[in-house]
């Protein structure tokens, strides 16, 4: 089916196993040598397309249709609060610059391809070159407001955050200018 020899297939499987994309387990048979069964690992599974965004959009649309706009707002607010609790633990005990660096790590880990640069005026620019929830954000732009609010809550008083670019509005990325107004 693959148009390859068995040796070629085994060579590919060896590489995929080495890279953590598949795992191999021997299976005993009645006669002869054991067979090997290969399965995708979590890492391997992540390489295949997912439609989580479609599910999320559909659920939010159903909530909106059944219970009104307030239901969507409440669901997004609750999700934002859950993220805040998780992220606050990672930012705790860090100074302003360390918090920004950790926030970029969190965003990067969750698929936003985030980066941070300090500007000439001393402010920082946090950029997200990918939106991990782009389809949801296009259908429910309120999610973007909750992201901005989440950043403000995480970095706390004494920090000003302004969205400078916005994917949903046609920009090539989302970016925020972040200024520490006073030493905290």
* Helix content class: 40-55%
Average of the residue pLDDT scores: 92
Strand content: 15-25%
What is the tally of helical segments? 7
Helix/strand order? HEEHHHHEEHHEE
Question: Would you write up a description of this structure?
Answer:
With 184 residues, this protein is an alpha+beta fold. Helix content is 49%, strand content 20%. It contains 7 helices and 6 strands; from the N terminus they run αββααααββααββ. The strands form 2 sheets. A 4-stranded antiparallel β-sheet has the order 3-4-6-5, with helices on one face. A two-stranded antiparallel ribbon has the order 1-2. Helix 3 (52-67) crosses helix 4 and helix 4 (69-91) packs parallel to helix 7 (142-155). The model has no long low-confidence stretch (mean pLDDT 92).
Give the topology.
Blueprint: H1 6-18, E1 22-27, E2 35-40, H2 42-45, H3 52-67, H4 69-91, H5 96-109, E3 114-118, E4 124-128, H6 134-139, H7 142-155, E5 159-165, E6 174-180
Antiparallel strand pairs: 1-2, 3-4, 4-6, 5-6
Helix pairs in contact: 3-4, 4-7
